Structure to design on (530 residues):
């Protein structure tokens, strides 16, 4: 069937996921090469977030295999905690730890999981907070930050673990419009630095400018994929065209009777 | 009523409101005047506020009785908190027997009067298991009885606290490579405990009052807490003043604690976004 591609950062083969009777993913095959930035787009309920959550096994796939850096995560005997350390994830709702300061958020997993010394964790945390432009917020608590700042702390928290792959699950969907740019700016720089990224997003301008490849999903399958100029600029499938016209020009969408 | 008022609008709305308010104050004043004039102040004073009797309580009521009450409460609370946390985690465990045990324990101990638990610990256990010695004697027994009762309540409170921590917190922790247990210890439980501080403060107030049940454990003179001491002196002196003094001792602790609980609760509400 499928061969393990050890050079791929992420490989997904025959992935299926059902919640009870509801089939959310019905056979997904795709790969993310090292250093590649892949954006997953599609209507809500198309299964794109579930796909992302299957990549680090936050959701247990019903069938199929997931490999990260050649290690099979769907193997029942895999050390899932060790495997997850190599996959950073950024959530729509940030999910910062509210009882810890910004520095505490970025150091706790380094200390408890990677067993780094306090000094080392502190230094790496400050470096990564500087990377996302929040070096001056180390002592603040999440509740004192704007949504955009919280999301950038969440990115720094994931980066501090030194991941091979970063997953972004609609990272700007919960933000006020004027704060979206800061987060996308950080992500764009990360992409330029060569990070392997898998991004579920509704930001078509980001997908167009930053992605190496765009995957359009609908109804639990990949409808089409390719370079952004192709998928967003000149889609082959009717479903892709309908979706894009609704996203790019929402005011023109027709109401179905 | 309204029809009548519309038919004969002799009073304006404001006048009517003032009249109703005046009536309410009037009833209150009449009730106070009646109470004051009918009460037998002499008898009340001799029985409830006899300075001579009150004086005999000091300093023991503070140095022995209040101290013991506080000691019973604090040890019982510590034991109950530890056991309650373990029970809450068992209640949420994915291993069914743990869940069943926690549910059974909580149901049983919440459904029984605390008095029965005290009698069981004080009388039943020594009878059923001769030769068993509680560490700390009566102090150990009181801590066990209070801890056993409060553990059931605290387990439910802590479970609710753990469940109130958003699911994304566990997901974020697991995504960073933490094991389930590590995520519980470092991320979930610290947040859950913060959430349950106000209800646990109320539980402390309840425990403080329930510590009076220690008088059923068969205590020596030096082991008496507030209620027992007050009861004993009331009997010896044939005067109710000690009860009042003991009541004041309870209130100087419970009222500030209650205020503290409400303030913590208000602060938490403000902190949420």
């Amino acid at each position: 069937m499928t061969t393990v591609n050890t050079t791929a950062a992420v490989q997904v083969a025959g992935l299926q996921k059902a919640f009870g009777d509801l089939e959310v993913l019905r056979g997904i095959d795709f790969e993310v090469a090292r250093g590649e930035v892949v954006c997953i787009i599609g209507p809500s309920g198309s299964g794109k977030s579930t796909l992302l959550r299957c990549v680090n096994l936050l959701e247990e796939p019903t069938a199929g295999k997931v490999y990260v850096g050649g290690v099979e995560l769907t193997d029942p005997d895999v050390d899932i905690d060790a495997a997850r350390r190599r996959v950073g994830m950024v959530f729509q709702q940030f999910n910062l730890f509210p009882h810890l300061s910004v520095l505490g958020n970025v150091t706790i997993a380094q200390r408890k999981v990677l067993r780094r010394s306090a000094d080392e964790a502190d230094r790496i945390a400050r470096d990564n907070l500087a990377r996302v432009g929040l070096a001056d917020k180390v002592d603040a608590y999440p509740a004192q930050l704007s949504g955009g700042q919280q999301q950038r702390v969440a990115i720094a928290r994931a980066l501090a673990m030194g991941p091979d792959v970063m997953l972004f699950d609609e990272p700007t969907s919960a933000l006020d419009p004027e704060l979206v740019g800061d987060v996308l700016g950080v992500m764009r720089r990360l992409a330029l630095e060569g990070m392997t990224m898998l991004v579920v997003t509704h930001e078509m301008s980001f997908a167009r400018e930053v992605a190496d490849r765009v995957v359009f999903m609908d109804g639990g399958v990949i409808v089409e994929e390719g370079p952004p100029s192709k998928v967003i600029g000149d889609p082959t499938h009717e479903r892709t065209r309908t979706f894009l016209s609704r996203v790019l020009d929402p005011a023109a969408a027709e109401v179905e009777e | 009523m309204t029809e009548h008022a519309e038919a004969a609008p002799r009073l304006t709305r404001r006048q009517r409101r003032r009249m109703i308010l005046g009536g309410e104050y009037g009833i209150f004043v009449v009730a106070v005047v009646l109470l004051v004039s009918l009460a037998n102040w002499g008898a009340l004073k001799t029985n409830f506020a006899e300075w001579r009797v009150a004086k005999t309580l000091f300093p023991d009521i503070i140095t022995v009785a209040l101290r013991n009450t506080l000691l019973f409460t604090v040890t019982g609370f510590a034991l109950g908190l530890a056991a309650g946390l373990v029970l809450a985690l068992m209640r949420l465990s994915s291993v069914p027997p743990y869940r069943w045990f926690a549910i059974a324990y909580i149901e049983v101990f919440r459904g029984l009067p605390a008095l029965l638990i005290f009698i069981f610990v004080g009388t039943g256990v020594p009878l059923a298991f001769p030769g068993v010695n509680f560490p700390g004697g009566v102090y150990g027994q009181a801590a066990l009885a209070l801890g056993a009762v409060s553990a059931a309540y605290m387990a439910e409170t802590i479970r609710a606290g753990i469940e109130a921590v958003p699911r994304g917190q566990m997901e974020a922790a697991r995504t960073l490579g933490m094991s389930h247990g590590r995520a519980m210890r470092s991320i979930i439980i610290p947040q859950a405990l913060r959430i349950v501080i106000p209800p646990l403060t109320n539980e402390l107030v309840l425990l403080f009052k329930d510590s009076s049940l220690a008088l059923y454990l068969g205590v020596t003179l030096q082991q008496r807490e507030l209620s027992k001491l007050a009861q004993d002196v009331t009997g010896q002196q044939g005067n109710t003043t000690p009860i009042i003094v003991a009541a004041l001792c309870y209130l100087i602790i419970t009222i500030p604690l209650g205020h503290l609980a409400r303030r913590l609760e208000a602060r938490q509400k403000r902190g949420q976004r």
